[in-house]
TrEMBL record, chains A, B:
Domain Nudix hydrolase span(s) in chain numbering: 56-179
Taxon lineage: Bacteria, Pseudomonadati, Pseudomonadota, Gammaproteobacteria, Moraxellales
Classification via InterPro entries: NUDIX_hydrolase-like_dom_sf, NUDIX_hydrolase_dom, Nudix_N
Species the sequence originates in: Acinetobacter terrae
This protein's UniProt keywords: Hydrolase
GO molecular function: hydrolase activity
Protein name (record): NUDIX hydrolase
C-alpha cells in the first residue's frame, strides 16, 4: 500500500537536485552543461554571460531539546512525512550561525525558547546533498507550542518515544544516541553518514 | 596602500550573495522580491512560474594535515589572498560527505592522500554565509605536491609557521588550536563564530 505522502517524497531525488537549471539567474539566457575551465565537474553554465550555476549541499540545523529528562518533539503538519514525529530542524538561513538556525527552527516549529548547550550530532546525507547539524539544548522555561508546520508538540520520556512514527532516520539516530549517552552522562559529538533509504530522504 | 588583490576580495560581500538573481532558473522569466506564503524572509520569486530561489549558506570542507608533527600548508595561486598560506579546503560538492570533501580538496590543492582522523574545527562565518568544517588528518605516505590552485606546498613545524602570511582567520584559529591542544594531546572539537574582518572574507 502506498502511503498518501509518497509521491511528494519521491520528488526529492538526487536527479531533481541537479536538473531544471535551464536559464541563467543573472541574464535570463539559456544554460548548457559543461565543465568550466579549471573545474572537474559538469555545471550549468550560461551560454551568454558565462555565469556558472553551482549547486551546493544544504545545511539543516536543529535541536534535541531537553526539559526535565524529556525530549521535545513535533508532529509534522507538512510533507514529507506529514503526521510523523520529528525534532525541530530546518534549512540554515544566510547570515545566521548554526546555533542561531537551530534556535530559530525550534522557535518556529515548537514555539519554544532554548539555550544551546553543545553540538551533539552531525550527519552526512550525501544522496540528497544535505548535512544535519543538531545541537543539544534545554528549554528555557518549559514553555512550548505548535508552529505553522506542526500539528502538535510534546515532551517524551524514553519509554514514551513513538519509535515507529518517527519522520526521519536522523531523528531516530539522534534519540538512540541520547538515551545511550545518558547512561554515562557523557555526550560526545557523533558524526555519521546516513542515507540508504529508497525514497532518498535520508 | 591597497594590496593588488583587494578589489576581487571586495566583491565577496554580503550584498553580492543576495543580489543578481533577476531571472528564474527554471523558466527564464523575471523574478521579484517577496516573502512567500508561510515564509518569514524575502526571496527572489519567479513572476511567471512562482519558483522560489533560496540562497543557502555554503559549506567549506578542509583538512589540518599532519606528518611527523608538521602541518601541511599550501600557498594560494588564486584570488582572494593570492600568495598567502592556507590549509587545503574548498566548497563541499553535492553527493559527497564532509570527510570526502576534505580529502578531495587536499588531493586537488596539495596532491596528497590523507587519512581523516576526526572532526576538529568548525566555524560559523555568518557575514559571508559560510560554515567551515575542518578535519584533523594524517598524510598517508608523506607525499604531497602543488595542485593548480597552489604555488607551493610545504610541511611546517610550529616555529616555522608564517603567522603574518596566513590567508584567512580560520587558518590562524585552527593552527592556534592545534599547537595549544598538542601540549595535552587532547584534540576536542572546537566550534566558533568568526567574521569581523572588514573585507568580509572571514
Amino acid at each position: 500500500m502506498m502511503p498518501k505522502f509518497n509521491f511528494s517524497v519521491m520528488l526529492i531525488t538526487p536527479l531533481s537536485l541537479t536538473m531544471n537549471m535551464n536559464f541563467c539567474v543573472i541574464c535570463g539566457h539559456k544554460t548548457t552543461e559543461k565543465i568550466p575551465l579549471g573545474d572537474h565537474q559538469l555545471r550549468r553554465v550560461c551560454t551568454d554571460c558565462g555565469n556558472i550555476h553551482y549547486i551546493n549541499p544544504k545545511v539543516i540545523c536543529g535541536a534535541l531539546v531537553i526539559w526535565e529528562n524529556k525530549v521535545l518533539m513535533c508532529r509534522r503538519a507538512i510533507e514529507p512525512r506529514y503526521g510523523l514525529w520529528t525534532l525541530p530542524a530546518g534549512y540554515m538561513e544566510l547570515f545566521e550561525t548554526m546555533e542561531q538556525g537551530a534556535a530559530r527552527e525550534t522557535r518556529e516549529e515548537a514555539e519554544a525558547e532554548v539555550e544551546i548547550e553543545q553540538l551533539y550530532c552531525m550527519y552526512n546525507i550525501p544522496r540528497i546533498g544535505q548535512i544535519y547539524v543538531l545541537f543539544k539544548a534545554n528549554l528555557v522555561d518549559g514553555q512550548f507550542g505548535s508552529g505553522e508546520e506542526t500539528i502538535e508538540s510534546r515532551l517524551f520520556s524514553e519509554d514514551e518515544i513513538p519509535w515507529s512514527e518517527l519522520a526521519f532516520p536522523s531523528v531516530e539516530r539522534t534519540l538512540r544516541h541520547y538515551f545511550e549517552d545518558r547512561k554515562t552522562n557523557q555526550f560526545d559529538m557523533h558524526l555519521e553518514t546516513l542515507g540508504s533509504r529508497l525514497d532518498h530522504t535520508g
